[in-house]
Specification:
Blueprint: H1 2-25, H2 32-60, H3 70-96, H4 101-110, E1 114-115, E2 120-128, E3 131-139, H5 143-150, H6 152-169, H7 176-182, E4 186-194, E5 201-208, H8 210-222, H9 224-239, E6 245-246, E7 251-259, E8 262-269, H10 281-293, H11 295-307, E9 310-317, E10 323-328, H12 330-337
Parallel strand pairs: 3-4, 8-9
Antiparallel strand pairs: 1-2, 2-3, 4-5, 6-7, 7-8, 9-10
Helix pairs in contact: 1-2, 1-3, 5-6, 6-8, 6-9, 6-11, 7-8, 8-9, 9-11, 10-12, 11-12
Length: about 350
């Protein structure tokens, strides 16, 4: 027993120190090796302690104390360690590995290609050093992709803020940015823009360090209105090319803007209907019901509520000489949003 204890204590202590040094150098490493070797060292110490007590008792009785030879001890210890290693490996794959960030990224990669709002795809996701690298491919003939190509740093910032705002509006459920921060990883967007004809491809890489991700998360936590305003203004810039949009024969959406803490939709009345006709309680109710029952709109409305944003429907006549504002407070939007669909 004493010999088993000595081997386990020496082996466990040395392995514990080496694993601990590795963990301190890279705190994103898996700590299971440190825990396992520490347990081995403790077991070895216990066996040595018990063996010494047993030897002392036998010697006090005047009897001879005998132990098996070192060869057998080493062989048995090696066999036990191999068996324990096999069991530990199985347990790691079943229990520990699915909880690791590396495993999470690998699963994301298995989901590729993933579509990006009709403007491109995520081809693959991986880890390089302390960065999660997302490889994106965009079609440069798409106007939205061209805007991202012209200002990739801003596009990256808006993407991160959007993810964080989505996480905040979904009762704080964990998202990829939170996982990156919690595991001390930064983000790298490796963007590839496909151009038609002989123009070939354009590549742009944007890196956001872990500290930069933390700053953005802090912004969303402390000032969600400001964070959402940034995102809305960027989305408006991205979607300006799609305006005007005809709602029906007499109403056209001509502009979307962000004013103070309100999202402003501006509609032009194309016929001779006076804008005062839109000052109606039933119209107000219909607007909110339509928005809050549409699954796509609900995603934005949920963020409006978090960011404490109101809504304004601005109606103007075709000469733009008369206008009417239908204003919806955050409390009105929240009440309508919480109604059963």
């Amino acid at each position: 027993m004493r010999k088993f204890g000595k081997i386990l204590l020496i082996f466990g202590s040395l392995a514990f120190v080496l694993n601990l040094i590795g963990l301190l150098k890279d705190n994103t490493s898996d700590p299971s090796g440190v825990i396992f070797t520490l347990i081995l060292a403790i077991v070895g110490l216990c066996l040595l302690f018990i063996g010494n007590k047993k030897k002392k008792k036998v010697q006090e009785k005047g009897e001879n104390y005998s132990e098996i030879g070192w060869g057998k001890v080493i062989g048995i210890t090696f066999g036990i360690l191999v068996a324990l290693g096999g069991v530990a490996n199985v347990l790691y794959k079943i229990i520990v590995e699915p909880q690791t960030f590396t495993y999470y990224v690998q699963n994301m990669n298995k989901s590729c290609p993933m579509h990006i709002d009709g403007i491109g795809t995520v081809d693959r996701v991986g880890i390089e050093d302390s960065l999660v690298v997302i490889h994106c491919q965009y079609d440069s003939e798409n106007e939205l992709a061209e805007i991202a190509k012209a200002n990739p740093e801003k596009a990256t910032r808006m993407t991160i803020l959007s993810i964080l705002l989505n996480a905040k509006s979904s009762q704080g459920q964990s998202q990829i940015v939170d996982k990156m921060i919690d595991n001390n990883y930064g983000l790298k967007l490796a963007m590839l823009f496909l151009s038609p004809g002989e123009l070939g491809v354009t590549t742009k890489d944007v890196v956001a360090t872990c500290s930069e991700l933390k700053e953005l998360r802090q912004l969303v936590s402390n000032n969600p209105s400001q964070a959402y305003k940034e995102v809305v203004e960027w989305q408006i810039e991205m979607n300006k090319s799609e305006l005007p949009v005809e709602i029906d024969e007499s109403i056209t959406l001509i502009d979307i803007s962000c004013k103070d803490n309100n999202i402003v939709y501006k509609f032009e009345i194309g016929d001779d209907t006076p804008v005062s006709d839109f000052d109606d309680s039933q119209i107000r109710k219909d607007i909110l019901n339509t928005l809050c029952q549409d699954p796509v709109s609900r995603v934005d409305i949920e963020k409006w509520i978090v960011a404490n944003f109101g809504l304004i429907y601005k109606y103007v006549n075709k000469e733009h000489t008369d206008s009417l504002d239908q204003m919806f407070s955050v409390s009105e939007i929240k009440e309508a949003f919480n109604q059963p669909i």
